Amino acid sequence: MMNKVAVCCAECGKEEDEGGVVNLKTCKGCMLVKYCNVTCQTKHWSTHKSACKEHAAELRDEALFKDPPSKEDCPICCLPMPVLLISFVSLPSATISSVPIHDFAVAHEELAKSHSDHYYSCCGKSICGGCVHSFQMTGNDGKCPFCNSDRGNKSHEEIVEEMRKRVAANDANSICELGGYYYGGAFGLQQDRAKAIELYARAAELDHHNAHINLADVYHEGGNLKKAKFHYEAAAMAGDDVSRCNLGVMEARSGNMERAIKHWEIAASAGHFRSMNNLRILFQEGGVSRETIDSILAAYNSSCAEMRSKPRDVCVRRMKNLLN
Length: 324
Hints:
A two-stranded antiparallel sheet has the order 1-2. Strands 3-4 form a two-stranded antiparallel sheet. The protein has helices at about 40-65, 100-105, 110-115, 130-140, 155-170, 170-185, 195-205, 210-220, 225-235, 240-255, 255-270, 275-285, 290-305, 310-324, and strands at about 25, 35, 115-120, 125-130. By secondary structure, it is mainly alpha-helical. The chain folds into two domains: about 5-40, no CATH class; about 85-324, Tetratricopeptide repeat domain (Serine Threonine Protein Phosphatase 5, Tetratricopeptide repeat, Alpha Horseshoe), CATH 1.25.40.10. Helix 6 runs antiparallel to helix 7 and helix 7 (about 195-205) crosses helix 8 (about 210-220).
């Protein structure tokens, strides 16, 4: 019979026992070594520091570049919820050099900038534009498509009060939305960016990816690129394509093109048009192979197709008609 490999403190060598008298704690940075107490960990840090940081970076990269989780579904139609309306638009395959992705986005700026979902403070749900439009066309304009509550006669004060109740119940989506109201001074609230950041941070602790995005944008605007990158990475690992595209831009500006391309490939494969366009430009400059660009474009169109439906197409056409 083989003897069990001893697990011991990296500093003093004390072994962990099955009875639990000695219960070693794993280093949270690298997950490689264990210590019997904080004193031993502190003493060993000068020896362990370099290896710990190196392996911690490897673990973070492994998590950062693995396949992201699936997009959240609209609670009504159960289709993946894209960030922007333009994600509903599929592009021709196998013609990447002539696909006017950027031109299309410029010509249809409202699709490239308009969010595809609508938040309702009554139930805390975010509903896709297709379902909202379909519900309104049945004569229910002014009502919530999910819980059917009346929205048309609600004052700003009543909407904020509804949201505060959901915030008190620790609903991450509502916490983040209320932060946005404070940040922009919307719905009758006095602009208070410190309060907004506090709410964003609270929602981020609940793993709400939109809160990480908002924090990243705030830090990026303030010039704190280290904190901005941390929050963009947290959002990207949660499946946010916009944050992953932004990470690609940050890496490209730092000269890390291999990492930038990895980010854009993941985001484009999930249906993010700006990442797809960045790869198109690189292909034209010789930075990406034809085989790679064709493969990514096929994945891009497939993801866009998964997010499309007749009601969503109607929503897109309606938006275009309103702004033409």
